[in-house]
Write a structure and sequence with these properties.
The chain is α/β, with parallel strands linked by helices and about 475 residues long. The protein has helices at about 10-20, 65-75, 80-90, 95-100, 125-140, 185-195, 220-225, 280-285, 290-295, 325-330, 335-350, 440-460, 470-475, 480-485; strands at about 1-5, 25-30, 45-50, 105, 120-125, 145, 155, 160-165, 170-180, 210, 230, 235-245, 265, 300-305, 320, 385-395, 400, 405-410, 415-420. Helix 1 packs parallel to helix 5 (about 125-140), helix 2 (about 65-75) crosses helix 3 (about 80-90) and helix 3 (about 80-90) packs across helix 12 (about 440-460). It comes from Paraburkholderia solisilvae.
């Protein structure tokens, strides 16, 4: 019997396994995917949103706690647990040295990527490199790893973990960390969550999955059915507008369309439906998937002219190109007359200003509904480009309720040996919306807390003032220091 069983193979699971092992616990990690697909959605990530009060190597200026909190508050619309959110925010300021110790390397943001040089630390080699570094470190430290081992049931005794089941295999452990992701690749659950709209459509049928095909939500559903306290709206998710030509699974970052704020977005009836220039793209890109999901046929079209070229990270597929706007509408299959009315009204409403895509500039529309509040330039320089958009689900927000020790709750009572991290609890912080890199902040903070707390519970230790969850998230637990000595 091992001390700590970690179920899952992404960032949160790996952070939990590494912290538990550093604290002296024996650890077994079960990953549902084959080795070549290990890492869950973490393999598709690029960066971590980091609080910092002064410049730090790859981070410029400062990004203090209160600004981070206000950014999160804005995108979630207040649907967030402030103490848990602030715990993750503060942990983001101190985790990078620990990450580097385990082989993660950072680089400045790529030119033209996102305007996040101040807020986000980018992984050298992206999420795949981060995942590989953590697995190498885990293997070196003696973490046992089993691939192709999806867990479908948990044995519980009055809220305490006893064993996990994968088919006919049974895994006992003194404590357990659940970090097996959400249900984004479970089409039937997505259909149930989104239901049928007023047009008789099932929106989820047109969703693409940006992340892993292995997150079916089997363990999440089992835990909720077993009486674990749930949190979050099953229809809420990290949902991005991505290229309609993207693959069904694992398209990742390169399928995202980043030119939305530089032009207009129309639905299949050639009508605009939201303010493309509401705020900086890293703060708003994750609302566009849901917006497109609410449109007829769950499809939209991002339209730009040649002035936008070079101002956004180009996606993997080239856009549809035409020398005139009517020709572009025809190439995209849009009603030409309606399209021209929309674009002509937008062009006429654009007010003179000083364009600057790095600031909330004064280029706006007047007398247009919906407005475009920033970066509004007429679409008048050929050639013109269009990108068909579909909703791309990254991860779902329905999860398990936790406290600051990452404990699973049953009827409001925290379990003393069952913990949860990553997507399976992110809904405590992310009730809706998203801002770039915050998912990795949550997974890293609560993965580290869960691993340390699980190791402590396996030893029979009780929490004390020297071993707070904040210290766990910062890598400052006594166990961690003993392991490093």
């Amino acid at each position: 019997m091992v001390d700590v069983l970690v179920i899952g193979g992404g960032n949160a699971a790996l952070c939990a396994a590494l912290m538990a092992r550093e604290a002296g616990a024996s650890v077994l990690l079960l990953e549902s995917a084959p080795r070549e697909w290990r890492g869950g959605n973490s393999q598709h990530t690029r960066n971590l949103r980091c609080m910092h009060d002064a410049p730090q190597d790859v981070l410029v200026d400062a990004y203090p706690e209160e600004e981070y909190w206000q950014d999160l508050l804005k995108v979630t619309g207040g649907i967030t647990n402030e103490p848990l959110a602030r715990l993750a925010i503060r942990a983001s300021s101190t985790c990078r040295p620990w990450m580097q110790k385990h082989g993660v390397r950072f680089q400045p943001p790529l030119s033209g990527a996102l305007h996040v040089a101040r807020t986000n630390a980018f992984f050298m080699g992206g999420g795949k490199a981060l995942v590989n570094a953590y697995y190498r470190s885990a293997e070196t430290l003696g973490v046992q790893i089993r691939y192709e081992t999806p867990v479908d049931a948990i044995e519980l005794d009055n809220g305490r973990f006893v064993a996990a089941h994968s088919g006919n295999q049974r895994f006992e452990a003194r404590t357990c960390v659940l970090a097996a992701g959400g249900f984004e690749s479970n089409r039937e659950w997505l259909r149930e969550a989104w239901g049928q709209n007023e047009r008789g459509e099932w929106p989820a049928d047109n969703f693409l999955i940006r992340g892993t095909r292995f997150n079916k939500g089997v363990l999440l559903k089992f835990m909720i059915d077993a009486g674990a306290d749930p949190i979050g709206d099953p229809s809420q998710s990290h949902c991005v507008a991505i290229d309609a030509r993207a693959p069904l699974y694992d398209g990742g970052i390169c399928t995202r369309i980043d030119c939305v704020s530089l032009g207009v977005v129309v639905n299949r009836d050639a009508e605009r439906f939201y303010d493309e220039g509401e705020d900086f793209w890293p703060k708003r890109y994750a609302i566009w998937g849901r917006l497109v999901a609410q449109q007829p046929g769950q499809i939209g079209y991002s339209i730009i002219d040649s002035k936008a070229i070079g101002r956004f990270m180009p996606p993997v597929f080239p856009g549809t190109r035409a020398d005139t706007l009517p020709d572009l509408a025809r190439a995209l299959g849009l009603p030409v007359d309606a399209f021209m009315r929309t674009v002509d009204a937008y062009n006429a409403a654009c007010q003179p200003g000083t364009f600057d895509h790095t600031t909330l500039d004064d280029c706006r529309t007047e007398g247009l509904a919906p407005p475009k509040t920033h970066w509004a330039l007429p679409l008048d320089k050929p050639p013109f480009y269009g990108y068909a958009l579909r909703p791309g689900i990254t991860f779902t927000y329905l999860g398990l309720k936790v406290n600051d020790r990452a404990q699973v709750h049953f009827g409001g009572k925290p379990s003393d040996n069952l913990f949860v991290a990553g997507e399976m609890m992110a809904g405590n912080v992310l009730g809706k919306g998203y801002t770039a890199g915050v998912g990795m902040s949550i997974g890293t903070a609560f993965g580290r807390i869960a691993g340390t707390q699980a190791a402590r519970a396996a030893r029979g230790d009780t929490a004390d003032s020297a071993n707070t969850p904040a210290a766990d998230a910062a890598g400052e637990s006594t166990g961690a220091h003993r392991a490093e000595a």
